[in-house]
Design goal:
Strand content: under 5%
Number of strands: 0
Shape: globular
Distance between the termini: 42 Å
Helix content: over 70%
Radius of gyration: 13 Å
Low-confidence stretches: none
Number of helices: 3
Order of helices and strands: HHH
Largest sheet: none
Oligomer: single chain
Length: about 90
């Protein structure tokens, strides 16, 4: 997968993860989309490490699922860290 396709995948996966997660996460859309790209990286790494599934083709359903799950994980972690810093 090319670099631009990977960025597009991460941006869309971040938007989907933001729509799936309940509640209001801080950071706005730019941070969410940036975290989506990081989540796609994390999802690809975890998928290959745990299940032997990695990011293959742009239109592959497993690529999208791995990227979205990774984005959800990253958004949840980001929410945990920013929630604690807002209380201080």
């Amino acid at each position: 997968m090319s670099f631009l396709a990977f960025l597009l995948l991460g941006l869309i996966a971040g938007a989907i993860a933001k729509a799936i997660l309940p509640g209001k996460q801080g950071g706005g859309w730019f941070i969410t989309l940036l975290l989506g790209v990081v989540g796609a990286l994390l999802g690809g790494w975890l998928g290959s490490l745990l299940f032997g599934v990695d990011l293959q083709e742009f239109w592959s359903i497993q690529t999208w699922l791995v990227a979205i799950v990774g984005s959800i994980i990253v958004l949840l972690l980001y929410g945990l860290f920013t929630r604690n810093s807002r209380k201080a």
